[in-house]
Write a structure and sequence with these properties.
3 strands; three-stranded antiparallel β-sheet; 66% helix; Ferritin-like; Ferritin; 3 domains; Rubrerythrin, domain 2; mainly alpha; globular
Length: 173
């Protein structure tokens, strides 16, 4: 469908639906993990199914809204990640430190540092796409603790959270 034919109210509703379904997807996935940890395997499976259903809803809302091309998506990703590591997370860290909440401060700090890495990687990818090329990398790895992403090979230890590099997960399509 032509995005110009969708009313502003429907565009707003699609994005609100996308945000809500996306949050429900991650929340129910975490609820599934917790239920499994507590030994409730069928409840965990139900939460997992609901999580996957919410993902379907979120993706469909975004598809109907319209997904731009890769170059535009990379620019939007850089903008979003930069906002998070320069403004959002520093403010969250200040607040959690003022409250003495070390767990929240650590969580926000890990995310802030990982978002800065993500923005840099997206910059590299955008330069490649502008040149008409794909990102020239053989492997991409993810830290399961802080969300740091590294190219080519896992480090000896994560520079953000210190987790051993052997715990990094290779990300594939």
């Amino acid at each position: 469908m032509d995005l110009d034919l969708i009313s502003m109210a429907t565009k707003d509703n699609l994005m609100e639906g996308f945000a809500g379904e996306s949050q429900a997807n991650r929340k129910y996935a975490s609820f599934s993990d917790k239920a499994a940890e507590e030994g409730f395997t069928k409840v965990a499976t139900l939460f997992k199914a609901a999580s996957l259903a919410e993902e379907i809803h979120a993706r469909r809302h975004l598809q109907v809204y319209g997904i731009p091309g890769t170059l535009e998506n990379l620019s939007a990703a850089i903008e979003g990640e930069t906002e998070e590591f320069t403004h959002m997370y520093p403010e969250f860290i200040k607040q959690s430190q003022a409250e003495g909440n070390e767990d929240a401060t650590r969580s926000f700090t890990f995310a802030m540092k990982a978002e800065q890495v993500h923005a840099g990687l997206y910059e590299k990818a955008r330069a490649a796409v502008k040149a008409g090329k794909d990102l020239e990398v053989s492997k991409i790895f993810l830290c399961p603790v802080c969300g740091n992403v590294v190219l080519e090979s896992a480090p000896g230890a994560c520079p953000i959270c210190g987790v051993p590099g052997k715990k990094f997960q290779e990300v594939t399509l």
